[in-house]
Known about the structure:
Elements: E1 5-11, H1 15-26, E2 32-38, H2 41-48, E3 55-59, E4 61-62, E5 65-66, H3 67-76, E6 83-87, H4 92-100, E7 105-108, H5 114-147, E8 151-156, E9 162-164, H6 166-171, H7 183-188, H8 192-208, E10 212-219, E11 225-236, E12 242-251, H9 253-281, H10 285-300, E13 304-310, E14 316-323, E15 334-335, H11 345-351, E16 354-357, H12 365-373, E17 378-390, E18 394-407, H13 416-454, H14 464-481, E19 484-492, H15 495-502, H16 504-521, E20 528-533, E21 536-542, H17 546-562, E22 578-586, H18 593-609, E23 615-617
Parallel strand pairs: 1-2, 1-3, 3-6, 6-7, 22-23
Antiparallel strand pairs: 4-5, 8-9, 8-12, 10-11, 11-12, 13-14, 13-18, 14-15, 16-17, 17-18, 19-21, 19-22, 20-21
Helix pairs in contact: 5-9, 9-10, 9-13, 10-13, 15-16, 16-17
Amino acid sequence: MNKNLIKVLLIEDNQDDFIMIYNLLSQVESPKILLDWENTYETGLTVMKKNQHDICLFDYHLGETKGLETVKTAINLGCKTPIVLLTDTENQELEIDLMNKGVADYLNKSEINKYTLNRIIRYTHEKNQSLNALKESKAKLQEAQKIAHLGNWEYDLKTQKITWSDEVFRIFGLNPSRLEPTYSEWLEMFTLESQQLWDKNVIFILEKAESCECEYQIIQPDGTLRYIDTQATLIVDNNSEPIGLFGTVLDITDRKKAELAVQDLRQKEHLLGLILDRIHQSLNLDEILETTVDSLRLFWECDRVLIYRFLEDGKGIVEKESVAVGSSPILGQIIDDPCFPNTDIIERYKQGYINIDVENPEINKCHVDLLKQFQVKASMVLPILINQEGEKQGSETTAWGLIVAHQCTHKRQWQISDTDLLRRLATQIAIAIQQAQLYHRLEKLNQELEKMAYVDSLTGICNRRHFEEKLDQEWKRLRRDNTSMSIIMVDIDYFKPYNDTYGHQRGDKCLQQVAQTISAAVKRSGDFVARYGGEEFVVVLPNTPIEGALKVAEDIRTQIEALRIPHTASAVSKWVTSSLGVANSRCCTDSNPEILLETADMALYNAKNAGRNQVYIDDL
Length: 620
């Protein structure tokens, strides 16, 4: 097939989806993508069986037929075209099932744009070519071994002379017309690791008198790295004494690169799986982000990986960073990119990755200057997009930040598989961020609900339910310490006539003022005030003798009267006044907080009977 043309078959019963995909692919200039369309399962399967396309885009829901059924049928009928399913939802279990059934990849329709569609087609095409190259190279190796069409060499142990066939010269990137290199010159063309492996294998052959087959990496004169498969065997004379080595050489570079590409892909999938496990097992966003940047930098062996969060003023902060030794850390720095206000760079981030070569003339100078400030020579950037729920317009996709890889020591061309990995990680990081945000919102809501459950909505102090719980807790604590507790019961004098005279709105305001006054009179951190009911309040004073409680009660009474809240319906004063009952008890097994509360309530009753606007004491 034409290397500059990718033939794509779309099986989709929705004409609007076909038009959208056709328009997007029409914008791709290189490689050119030719799109064929079938709108039924039956016609699509017929075309698939011909294996005339490089990739098949298949709608997961096609009428009453599901994509997995088609995959199974197509494979059974001998379809070799890689299939990319188009789905409507993000489903990790479905993804695993798809891969197990032989699907090359999948794409969520909501994520389709020019960049994602082009990227997944190119990535699937390249991956399929790598797998086909691996199969083809293995078949060629088997055929070459059958007909012995291999380069060969011979090494004389006595003269240390090595003899090559023309094929070996070609494999090592040398002209067959030149003299054979010496043995030492030959070894110098191996990488250091391969030299050590060769020496070890030669010792094995000489000692064991057995053949040895091994793979080595060589460096051609122009610096090109190649992989060879060498079979070596011992040559002996009539007396079974070793006199030399004989071997064959096969260039396995294509096969090895295909294997390494598949291995690299598996490693990326493994890395992605590890990070996904961490995301799913933890609600700690800091831990998730640190794991991501550390794992990516070590995997790619790059100089810096960072998570960059946008701030409200258009600037951004380096939220998390993993940096190699020798590279400058920029963690926590506020970065003001001058390109942001004047370009559509954030919108470009939203559309897909930006692969930046600092010396690329198409990059804005302001952005180049910023990258050079951080010693960046190559950068790979993907946005972290999250869905924000708006009050009026519903869900809106916004750029929370960026996940960025930097190469600082040298230029670097990132692979499509690298950007695909980063894209998938950016999606999972966005999910983790939204999980963390949801968790914090729920935590805040729980705190507000707890506050509503324990705080009196009118006065803002403890309600009766919270009072009863705290009273029981304090009593048990003081009982362990064998100390005492005092309680003050406070009642606003003639409050019903006050409400009848001034109305409930003024009555509520009066209750609020009195509650604030009582709270202000209670000084110690362990003391607490609660609304007991209606116009009654209660003050709990742990580890306070009756004398101290009396002083606090008198302060409360005088300060309430000092508010000078008019009360023409009162029989004791023209101002709002209060009556207070005080009781004290040692916290022991012979008593309980209910008895103390009843005693304070009896003291309050006596204060009211004695004429009100006074403090009455009743000590247990």
